[in-house]
Amino acid sequence: MSRIQRLSCFLILLNPFWIHVLYFLFISSFGFWVLLILNPKLTPKKLDLFFTSVSASTVSSMSTMEMEVFSNSQLIVLTILMFIGGEVFTSMVELQLRKLKLKFSEKKIACVENDLNSSLELGDIDDHNNFDILKYNSIKFLGYVVLGYLLIFNFLGIVMVLVYLKCVSSTATEVLKSKGLKTSTFSVFVIVSTFASCGFVPTNENMIVFRKNLGLLIILIPQALIGNTLFPSCLRFCIWSLGKIMKKKKEVVGFLLENSEEIGYLHLLPKLYSLVLVASVFGFVLIQSVAIGAMEWRSSSNNGFSGLNWVEKLIGILFLSVNSRHSGESIVDLSTLSSAILVLFVAMMYLPPYTSFMPIKIEEGEEGEGEEENEIMEGNKKRRKTKRAKFVDNFVFSQLSYLIIFIFIICITERHNIKQDPLNFNIFNIVFEVISAYGNVGFSMGYSCGRQVHPQSNCVDMSFGFSGKWSDNGKLVLIVVMIFGRLKKFNMNRQRAWKLL
C-alpha cells in the first residue's frame, strides 16, 4: 500500500471531529511558525502571535494585537489562514474525503490490511449498483460546485473592491496610503475575511475608518451573507440553476436536490428548510436594524453613528446587523452602543448560522431501532463499548453549559484584573468576549484607560480587543473557546440553539 493510500485509509477511519481538531491545530501552528519567521514591525508576545493565528484559522477575528503591526507578507499569511479555515473551504475538503470513502467502500477495500493489492484501481465503481454510482457522481459534482462557488464569489468581490478603490473612492484610497497598506492586499484580505466570516480588517479601527464609504459597505454586505448564513440557500439555488443550464447533469442535479440528507452534506439543506432559512436570516437582520435604529438614531457626541447623514446611518445599521451574526466587522465602537443593543448582539452571536425558527419534525425512530438491533447482533464486547460510550455521554453538556464553564474559568484567571479594574473587567464584558469567541464573530467591547478606577500613568489606549488585556492563562482559555466554537456543529441539535436544555 502506498503512503497516499495509507493516509487516505487513516482519514477515512478517523472520526470527522478529530480530523477537524487536527486540521485546525495544524494550520494554526503552521501559521504561527510562518508569522514568527516573517517578524512583525513590533515584536509581540509569542502567545499573542499564536492567538492571532488561531483566531484567523478559526475565522474568529478575536484580537490581542493591533492589525497594523503586521507586514504585507504577514497579512498575506493571515489571508491564507482565513481562506483555508473558512467553512466553505473546509466543507469542500469534507466532500473530497466523503467521495474518497465511497471509492474505498465500493471496492470493499480493507484499509486495515497491510497486504492490500496496490494494483487495484480505487476509481472504479461497480456498475451493478446504480444508486451508489449516482450518489458518488452527485457528491463529485457537488464538490466542483462548492469549489466554483468559493472561487467565483471571492474573485468577484475582490474585483469589485479594487474597482471601487481605483475608480470611485479617493478617500478610502487615501486612508490605505496613510496606513501603508497596498490596495491589492487590502482588497484580497477584506473580501476573503468577509466571505469566510472572519471579520479581520488590516486597519486598527476595523471598518470604522470606512464607515462613510457606502460603496465598500454595500459590496461587503452580500459577501458576509453568501459566505455564511445564506450559504445553503445560495448553494441550492446554484445547483438548481446549473441543472437548467447543463442538461447532461440533470439526473445528478435532481438527485442532489431530492436527496440532500442522503448526501450527508451539512450545507445542502432541503428545499423547505432553505426557503425558511432565507426568511429567518432577513428576519434577524430586520429585528436588529429596527432595534439599532430606535436606540441609536438620535446621535449624541459619544454615539458611534454621530456625524453620519441618514443614508449613511441606514447602510451602517444594515452593515452592523448583518455582521453581528458571524462576520464581526464593525463601523462603530461597540462600547458606545446602548446596553439593550449589546444584549441583542449577545443573542445573535450565540445562535448558529443556520438557525431557522420553523417546527421541522425530524424522524428518529427508525434510526434508533437500527442501533438497538446492531447492539444485539454485535455481542457482549460491543455492548461493553456502548455502555462506556453512554457513560461518557453523561459529560456531554449543552452549548450553554460549556459557555458557563468557560466564563467561570476566565473569571478565575482574571480575578486580579476584576478586582483592580472592575469597570473594564466587568462580568458583562467577559461574557460578551467569550460568546463572541464561541460564535467565531470577533465583536469586542475593547479596553479603555479612561475607565480605570486606579489610573495607570503608563496606560495607552490600543486598538485591539478586550482580550488583549487579559492574562496569558485567560488568553489560553479563549483559544480553546475559539476552537470549540469552530467545532460546535458536532454538538448541535439541528441548529436548534434556542432549546437550552
Helix content: 55-70%
Describe the oligomeric state of these chains in a short phrase: single chain
Distance between the termini: 48 Å
The major beta sheet can be summarized as: none
Subcellular location: Membrane
Protein name: Cation transporter HKT15-like
Keywords: Ion transport, Membrane, Transmembrane, Transmembrane helix, Transport
Main location: membrane
What does the model show?
- It is found in: Membrane.
- GO terms for molecular function: monoatomic cation transmembrane transporter activity.
- One of its GO terms (biological process) is metal ion transport.
- It holds the Pfam family TrkH.
- The protein is mainly alpha-helical and 501 residues long.
- It has 20 helices and no strands.
- The chain has helices at residues 3-13, 16-38, 46-57, 72-85, 87-106, 130-168, 170-178, 183-195, 214-229, 231-245, 250-258, 260-263, 271-296, 310-323, 339-350, 365-393, 399-413, 415-420, 427-438, 472-486.
- The longest helix has 39 residues, at 130-168.
Kindly list the characteristics that best describe this protein:
501 residues, transport, Cat_transpt, TrkH_K-transport
Which SSEs are present, and which pair or pack?
Layout: H1 3-13, H2 16-38, H3 46-57, H4 72-85, H5 87-106, H6 130-168, H7 170-178, H8 183-195, H9 214-229, H10 231-245, H11 250-258, H12 260-263, H13 271-296, H14 310-323, H15 339-350, H16 365-393, H17 399-413, H18 415-420, H19 427-438, H20 472-486
Helix pairs in contact: 1-5, 2-3, 2-4, 3-20, 4-8, 5-6, 6-8, 6-9, 6-11, 8-9, 9-14, 10-11, 13-14, 13-15, 15-19, 17-19, 17-20
GO molecular function, one term: monoatomic cation transmembrane transporter activity
Protein name: Cation transporter HKT15-like
InterPro entries: Cat_transpt (IPR003445), TrkH_K-transport (IPR051143)
